[in-house]
Amino acid sequence: MSKIVSLTEAASIALHGMIIVAKSEKMANVVQIAELTGSSKHHVAKIFQRLVKDNYLESHRGPSGGFTLKRKPTDITLLEIYESIEGRIEVTTCPLDKGICPFGLCIMDNVTRKMTVDFRTHLQGHTLADYL
Question: 72: burial class by Cβ within 10 Å (0-12, 13-18, 19+)?
Fold first, then answer.
């Protein structure tokens, strides 16, 4: 079955995992995040290393260690998290990056551009605080 829109597993783990950390009264660790997102702890660890490197999280080592936010939940947008993992969202006219369309009218009628703009706007308009 085909899906028009889908998130990568990495983006999903990052977005959901950051909300888990923001909601947590104590530090959330890789094992907890992996269990709650249904993901591999190795994949979670790799993604969260990236979020630490990009200054969204602090990592605390040890048996009672885990992750804490470096900024307030109101100051971290879903777009920032998404782009930390996937790179900047590029809004283009053609989904195939063609400069010249072989047809007089785009068969997609620029719907992919609109979807990209709407997706980016949605992520930009929501912070972690919206999900607490």
Answer: exposed
- Confirm whether 3 is domain-assigned: no
**Under 8 Å between Cβ of 66 and 60:** yes
Q: Which residues contact 50 (CB under 8 A, 6 or more apart)?
A: 14, 84, 85
Cα–Cα distances in Å, from 42 out to 49, 85, 120? 11, 15, 28
List, for residues 59-87, the tens digit of each pLDDT value: 999 888 999 999 999 999 999 999 999 99
Which residue range is the domain that position 17 belongs to? 9-131
86: domain CATH number is 1.10.10.10
